[in-house]
């Protein structure tokens, strides 16, 4: 469904054998999407009853992320770091964790689906706002990121880059900003 639905941000992007589109870009591992949906369902019990609710949240997150950079099936390959399983899962989980705290029943009686999941898109847009496309385009030096340690490193990289962005007060990033991020520093492969 995520690959076939024309409303899906992952339309024609899922790397699986049944992707029969002639113009398919086989970039997104299905397990990245499955794990992202699991995180949504775990965080928001109301999405368990109707899978379209969990899909609406996932769509909102990734429409916002892809929209920030103008990513389409034709241009997605130019953002190799963003198309990684570990990155898709990390960004989805970061947004879900933020939403989970926003919709904590101790502080709010609104369900995450009150606005058809669109708050997820706003939260995702806030997460990637200001992050230069180069962060997703320039291959990271660190490899083997599809582990808990690797996903933590991606999250650390996003957080550190956002700190750098905030310190520049929305102006130009300092030269060689990537040297401040461990994702771009040489190192050994990460272990679980």
Would you identify the regions where 5 or more consecutive residues have pLDDT less than 50?
none
Let me know the average pLDDT.
Answer: 89
* Rounded radius of gyration (Å): 17 Å
Number of strands: 0
Q: Give the topology string: H per helix, E per strand.
A: HHHHHH
Q: Characterize the main sheet.
A: none
Counting DSSP H or I runs of 4 or more residues, the number of helices is 6
Helix-strand makeup class:
mainly alpha
N-end to C-end Cα span = 31 Å
Strand fraction equals: under 5%
> Which percent bin holds the helix content?
40-55%
Shape: globular
Give an account of the 3D structure.
The chain is mainly alpha-helical. The chain has helices at 30-43, 51-69, 85-102, 118-128, 133-137, 148-167. Helix 3 (85-102) packs across helix 6 (148-167). The protein starts with 29 loop residues before the first helix and ends in a 25-residue tail after the last helix.
């Amino acid at each position: 469904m995520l690959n076939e639905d024309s409303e899906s941000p992952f339309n024609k992007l899922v790397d699986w054998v049944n992707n029969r589109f002639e113009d398919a870009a086989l970039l997104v591992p299905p397990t990245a999407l499955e794990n992202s949906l699991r995180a949504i369902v775990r965080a928001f019990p109301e999405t368990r009853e109707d899978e379209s609710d969990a899909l609406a949240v996932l769509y909102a997150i990734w429409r916002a992320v892809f929209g920030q950079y103008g990513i389409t099936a034709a241009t997605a390959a130019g953002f190799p770091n963003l198309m990684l399983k570990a990155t898709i899962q990390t960004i989805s989980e970061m947004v879900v964790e933020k939403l989970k705290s926003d919709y904590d029943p101790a502080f709010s009686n609104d369900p995450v689906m009150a606005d058809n999941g669109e708050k997820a898109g706003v939260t995702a847009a806030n997460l990637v706002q200001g992050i230069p496309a180069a962060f997703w385009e320039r291959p990271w030096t660190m490899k083997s990121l599809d582990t808990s340690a690797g996903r933590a490193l991606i999250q650390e990289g996003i957080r550190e880059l956002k700190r750098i962005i905030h310190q520049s007060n929305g102006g130009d990033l300092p030269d060689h900003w990537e040297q401040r991020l461990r994702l771009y520093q040489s190192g050994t492969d990460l272990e679980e």
